[in-house]
């Protein structure tokens, strides 16, 4: 029922549109209208997301590793910024902060123990010696910690460290609930990310 100008009310038909119908209407409507502009942006973003997902599924294991590792590099920058805003200031503080995240995700194992388990040299980076599944778990840990630090406005190194540990532990619990393999039990790839990058052909825009 809708109210008319005279104060009276009358019933009108309420139409349920399919997703495709919404898409057609939004794409052909006036983008000067805010709701139309928002709709066009939404469909553009969703289309790109699907394209990226389809592209990712077509990649082989090495290509997936490279893609996730590069994404993790960018998210770790954002995580470092969020941690700094929370009070994690020095390189030592950040190393401790990162270690808490690993301990949560790896059932108490810190960076040193993970290095030993993977039989890596001290100079080798843990993230460069992970398969796509293990990298994805660490990417989820990083993004969720970043969001929680900012959303909950965490302050203080101790609270930031605890938050990182708790998020890591929650990701681990999710893996267990889904019947997945714990990250410390996943195989270590023969080739590192750096070795794969040397094989990867350079793009024209690089």
Give an account of the 3D structure.
The chain is mainly alpha-helical and 206 residues long. It folds into two domains: 11-58, no CATH class; 61-196, no CATH class. The chain has eight helices and two strands, in the order ββαααααααα. The protein has a two-stranded antiparallel sheet with strand order 1-2. Helix 4 (91-105) packs parallel to helix 7 (157-177) and helix 6 (132-151) packs across helix 7. The longest helix is centred in the middle third of the chain and has 26 residues, at 61-86. The relative contact order is 0.11. The mean pLDDT is 89.
Question: How are the elements arranged and paired?
Answer:
Layout: E1 2-3, E2 9-10, H1 19-28, H2 34-57, H3 61-86, H4 91-105, H5 111-117, H6 132-151, H7 157-177, H8 193-199
Antiparallel strand pairs: 1-2
Quick rundown:
This protein has 206 residues and is mainly α.
Total count of domains: 2
Distance N to C terminus: 59 Å
Strand order of the largest sheet: 1-2
**Secondary-structure element pattern, one letter each:** EEHHHHHHHH
- What is the number of strand segments? 2
Strand content: under 5%
Report the mean per-residue pLDDT as an integer: 89
Computed over alpha carbons, the radius of gyration is: 23 Å
Low-confidence stretches: none
Basic shape: elongated
Helix proportion: 55-70%
Count up the helices. 8
Largest sheet: 2 strands, antiparallel
SS-derived structural category: mainly alpha
């Amino acid at each position: 029922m809708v109210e008319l100008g005279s104060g009276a009310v009358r019933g009108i038909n309420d139409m349920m549109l399919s997703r495709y119908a919404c898409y057609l209407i939004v794409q052909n409507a006036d983008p000067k209208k805010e709701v139309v502009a928002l709709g066009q942006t939404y469909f553009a973003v969703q289309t790109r997301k699907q394209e990226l997902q389809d592209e990712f599924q077509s990649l082989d294991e090495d290509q997936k590793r490279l893609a996730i590792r590069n994404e993790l590099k960018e998210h770790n920058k954002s995580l470092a910024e969020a941690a700094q805003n929370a009070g994690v200031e020095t390189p030592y503080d950040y190393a401790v902060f990162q270690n808490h995240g690993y301990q949560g995700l790896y059932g108490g194992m810190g960076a040193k123990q993970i290095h030993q388990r993977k039989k890596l040299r001290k100079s080798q980076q843990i993230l460069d010696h992970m398969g796509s599944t293990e990298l994805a778990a660490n990417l989820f840990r990083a993004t969720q910690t970043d969001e929680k630090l900012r959303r909950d406005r965490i302050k203080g190194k101790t609270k930031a460290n605890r938050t990182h540990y708790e998020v890591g532990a929650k990701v681990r619990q999710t893996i267990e609930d889904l019947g997945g393999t714990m990250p410390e039990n996943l195989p270590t790839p023969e080739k590192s990310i750096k070795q794969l990058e040397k094989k990867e052909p350079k793009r024209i825009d690089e």
